[in-house]
Amino acid sequence: MSARPMRRLGIVLLLASLVGCVSPRPSKIMSSDGRITLTYWSATNAQELEFANQIAAEWNARHTEIQIRVEPVPSGQSTEEVILAAIASGTTPDIYANVFPGAMQDLLDARAVVQLDEYPDFFNVMHERMPPELLEQYRSFDGHYYQVPWKSNPVMVLYNTRMLREAEVPTLPATYSEFLAAAARVTRDRDGDGRTDQWMATIDYYPIWYKRLFDYYPLYLAASNGQKLLDNRRVIFDNEYSVRVFRFLHECFTRGYIPRQSFQGDVFLDGRVAAKFTGPYSISQLERYRPADFEYAYGPIPRPDDAAGQPVSYADPKSTIIFTTCRQPREAWEFVKFMVSKQNDLRLLELTSQLPIRAGLLEDQTFADYFKRNPKLVKFAEQLATARGIESIAELKEIFDAIAQEVEASVVFDLKPPEQAVHDAARKSQQILDVE
Amino acid sequence: MRRFLLYAILIIGAIIFLYPFLWMLAATFKPEIEIAGFSIIPRQITLESYRLVFRKIPITRGFINSLFVAMVVTASVIVFGSMVGYALSRLRFRGREMIFTLALVTMMIPAQLTLIPLYTMMVKFGWVNSYLALIVPAMMSSYAVLLFRQFFLSIPQSLIEAARLDGCSDWRILFTIVYPLSKPAIMTVAVLTFMGVWNDVLWPLMVIRDPKLMTMPLMVTLFAVGGQAEARLGVQLAAAMLLALPVIVAYIFLQRYLIESIASSGMKG
Amino acid sequence: MQPGRANRFSTLSKAVAALRTRLHGHAKVLRPNDSLTDNTDRVGYLMVLPYILHIAVFLGYPLAFAFVLIFHRWNIYTPMKWVGLGNIRLLLSDPLVWRALGNTLYFLLIHIPLQLVIALGLAQLLNQKIRGRAFFRASYFLPFVISGVVVTILWQQLYAVETGIINVLLQLVGLPKIGWLTDRRFAMPAIAIMATWKNVGLYIVLFLVGLQAIPSHLYEAAELDGASGWQQFRLITIPMLNPTIMLVLVLSTIGGFSLFIEPYVMTGGGPANSTLSGILYLYKQAFFFSKMGYATTIGFFWATIIFIVVLFQRRFVETEAM
């Protein structure tokens, strides 16, 4: 015979655990009037959200049976982690617009993405946007396509041209020597208090893997004229190009051209720093917040003095995918087609100043007016032609993490010479790849 | 002279341990520029930091979540722990000593070892982002078992025999006779468990992503680490203050019990 | 500093258990009166059943699964991939694992002596006849009950290079500012000092209990024999407090190896990995790179190290029970 309090307690506990079972899940809504609502996750920055809301509104007005609901991506350590966590907990949206192609392998392994070349009009739509060779870069290992290449942001160097002019720097630097010479002139103590308060550039040197996509990797591509980091799971970046990049960055830090501190606020906008490694998306931000007399221009990624040919850079691409949890993938595909139409590519440019992955932007009449109004974007559109993407392997993050650790150790803290750092990064990366 | 030195050291010690909290409290009411100062009395009082916290994160929800999880787990640990403790100390059955040894052994397993496998289990069960992941793995504790067992051994056998002769089942004995006599042990287990669950961050960090389910410390952690506080010191400190407040309030009223229960149950047999 | 999930109980209850054992001999197992009927109390089985089930599912199975995971590569969503000794090989040659180990030992080297000296010192002082003992005791104990997150956020401000109170104080006495969290040499010591501040209250209380249990006649006898205060301390107090000292050692060690929230919030493991802790690295491997197999391998390695260190301490520090 159980004691009464015992039974009561047991019931309370049972109820408590049942309450816990009711965890919130986003509903794949199919309302009673047969309307379908698809969830679309957009990046959280204001410009992209505005873009998402506008195209969703336009679509929703024209298609009453299929409605799009825009939600910003939930916050977390990184968007990749958030997506994987969503897959694990079954809370994925239907469409997601900010997938990093380098992370596609994880999604493929999880069987989370819809195979898009199943749709008969896939190749038509894609080839209208880009030549087959360009599309080829986005083909997955099994030969199929699971992503729609959407936008790309080539990384270049943003310069405060007034600061350069005041420091008597004649042209936008293009090589290491030019950059270092300019840096020597720009970096100084402006207000005479004994401490430097004006620098050439700033880099977020915290060893977070994706930060290196904006400094080390573009520099490496520029120095090596587009050579890859890996070749069939063998590390090949253990070469003179990497060493030169490390040495260049090391020089910048040692001489104080790049400060070893973190700042509150935007130092570039404040005019305390003359250069920044960034993409075209900075333009819309700059236009919104800059003081009236702020002048800026974009230059190529610095490379060794003896480099030849068109300067190469890294283009930070993002693709759009449809999750396999979507119950109406066909309708989702219709929306995705709409999203990458010419009109919306123009809208993307207008609202976010990010480049759609579309060939012939500069020759196409539709965009001519835009580029006339925004000449600064022309450089990016040109860079797009020689911009490289990135390998899509499962270990990508770890390899960049290894590189980031070595950059911090050698370049920032001077704990080891550049050759040693590159070698250690390569060795660690190879060990990671060899675990299999 | 010696006494003066003695008190001086003790007072300096008290200042070292208390002043930072007072400073933090004051800083949450100061406007951003004033925060750098020493003073624990703000020159200008502003509620802006707190307002921002409440606007940015559902911290009251976090508080309720923490309360709910901590209470359920504590109740569960006490009930099941006392059951096993009673069985191990008062009942005879085959394998009793083995289970006692088992409880001792389980205490030696470091959490680091089972952290990841347990997490993968949560994923597979579909418990990620649910209260289940926070409650169920923590529902029982070997420490509670051993603590209760130790305590129950000191309860006179005659009491139990008498109740048995009266026809009481052991369930009845445990909950109606032993419990009232075990207030110190129950208090100790309650306090330790509650504190442990309330302050735990690593596990909730791993299993909870949805802000609606986050515990309070987790919310404050992510708030401090993520960019939401916009690098404003007052706001971060305000969030921390809100997290500390319930504990401090409870502490002010219960610290005697808390410290004494630890100290005195060390004295008991 | 919060020990891991399963260890959150250990801090205080181990204190209780050990003290009780010390002061009153080992627990006597009272056997129910054998003259009663010989039947087995079946109720016992029912009472322990939920517990056994729980242990099997949430402790036993993960433990067994851990041993499987070590030999695989797995990111949860895809089938496990056998890698044999690959993870172990990677771990042994992974400079960051050894870095984390070194960091932890560095942490303990500062934290433990600091803690012992301060706790014992203040406990001694509190043990005198003074007024307001309860108030002092409560003040010292307060940081211990406060969440580690709060303490970390608070000290992050105290350690701020330009505006933090600690540096302001240093400058007042003419010392240079220190980059507490930005300088590789000082980041770990900074965390060690903070951890001491947070936990020392517990040990003050424990030492106080231990001190009060020392029979005064021992001191009186020593006084008569002409022993000085320091000699009395060395020959009576310390040996009698050995179990408590042992406890401080073990708990602080486990706590040091379980360091997570402090580096996670304050430094992210930097600068230059000088505050990378084992658990932080484990967490990064699991949640930044989805390497469950490797993360489990790190966990296994870490647990082994803890085991060895505690064994070591028991062997060389613990004296026989009197």
Percent helix of chain A: 40-55%
Round the mean pLDDT of chain C to the nearest integer and report it.
84
State the separation between the terminal residues of chain A, measured CA to CA: 58 Å
Query: Kindly, what is the distance between the CA atoms of the first and last residues of chain C, rounded to a whole number of angstroms?
Result: 33 Å
H and E order of chain A: HEHEHEHHHEEHHEHHEHEEHHEHHEHH
CATH architecture of the largest domain in chain A: 3-Layer(aba) Sandwich
- CATH fold field value of the largest domain in chain A: D-Maltodextrin-Binding Protein, domain 2
Q: What is the number of beta strands of chain A?
A: 11
The CATH topology of the largest domain in chain C: MetI-like fold
Integer tally of domains of chain C: 2
Strand content of chain C is under 5%
According to DSSP, the number of beta strands of chain C is 2
String of helices and strands of chain C: HHEEHHHHHHHHHHHH
Shape-level CATH architecture of the largest domain in chain C: Orthogonal Bundle
Low-confidence stretches of chain C: 1-9, 23-38
Largest sheet of chain C: 2 strands, antiparallel
Give an overview of the whole structure.
The complex is a heterotrimer of chains A (436), B (269) and C (322). Chain A is α/β, with parallel strands linked by helices. Chain A has helices spanning 4-21, 46-62, 79-89, 104-109, 122-129, 132-136, 161-166, 176-186, 216-224, 240-254, 281-289, 329-339, 342-352, 365-373, 376-385, 396-412, 418-434; strands at 36-42, 66-72, 95-99, 148-154, 156-160, 199-202, 273-278, 296-299, 313-322, 355-356, 387-388. Chain A has two domains: 36-154 and 315-388, D-Maltodextrin-Binding Protein, domain 2 (3-Layer(aba) Sandwich); 156-314 and 393-434, Periplasmic binding protein-like II (D-Maltodextrin-Binding Protein, domain 2). Chain A contains 17 helices and eleven strands. In chain A, strand 1, helix 2 and strand 2 (66-72) form a beta-alpha-beta unit. The relative contact order of chain A is 0.16. Chain B folds into two domains: 2-46, no CATH class; 59-230, MetI-like (MetI-like fold, Orthogonal Bundle). In chain B, helix 3 (59-90) packs across helix 12 (216-225) and helix 10 runs antiparallel to helix 13. The longest helix of chain B is centred in the C-terminal third of the chain and has 35 residues, at 233-267. Chain B is globular, with a radius of gyration of 23 Å. Mean pLDDT of chain B is 87; it is low at 265-269. The model of chain C is unreliable at 1-9 and 23-38 (pLDDT under 50). In chain C, a hairpin with a 7-residue loop joins strand 1 (72-73) and strand 2 (81-82). In chain C, strands 1-2 form a two-stranded antiparallel sheet. Chains in contact: A-B, A-C, B-C.
